[in-house]
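Dear all,

This email documents one entry for the complex benchmark we are building for the journal club exercise. For each entry we list the sequence lines for every component of the assembly. Then comes the predicted three-dimensional structure of the complex as a token string, followed by one or two observations. Please use this as the template for your own entries, and keep the labels exactly as they appear.
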Amino acid sequence: EAQVTQNPRYLITVTGKKLTVTCSQNMNHEYMSWYRQDPGLGLRQIYYSMNVEVTDKGDVPEGYKVSRKEKRNFPLILESPSPNQTSLYFCASSIKGGTSGRASRDTQYFGPGTRLTVL
Amino acid sequence: KQEVTQIPAALSVPEGENLVLNCSFTDSAIYNLQWFRQDPGKGLTSLLLIQSSQREQTSGRLNASLDKSSGRSTLYIAASQPGDSATYLCAVNQAGTALIFGKGTTLSVSS
């Protein structure tokens, strides 16, 4: 089954304790992206990747890191989480990135979400 | 700066009704518009994608239209069912930006 998976689905942690949220897709997609969803603010892009070893900042990258060493995986790293990073996080993928960067013109497929609470 | 607005924010209807969800955007220079469904505790499921050159797309009981010049899209759901209860999000795709989402319409269909 074609899908985007994320782990963990739920995470409660404390300020400053490094964590990684994994994202994996089995569709051989080039483009992958991370979003966070907050009440009243909607979904905002954190980072995106046009292909292996090609990553760039989205709208709200502060406090986050990503890597794209393999096509299928795009982990989100919080080196020193803070309470303002409490949010619902989504990973997304699509076949290819757009020619002008950041977005993809193709249908984007989203993972199930990771609810993160930082105390 | 592109802004995407969805009205109404919430909608309750009895089972069997046909309904329309609205999405408007301020900048018509888009590649496409995508409608998603979000269920509590689950991710976003893509419902329909309309390219800027298209006027509408259909999938089963769903029909999405796009009027790029007026900055509007509608999602029509025919013969609504309780299983259609969810939050529906529209998102526009344009050069140089990420998907820009509306805040969503939360639909409740009662049996």
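Observations: Chain B has a mean pLDDT of 93. Chain B has no helices and eleven strands.
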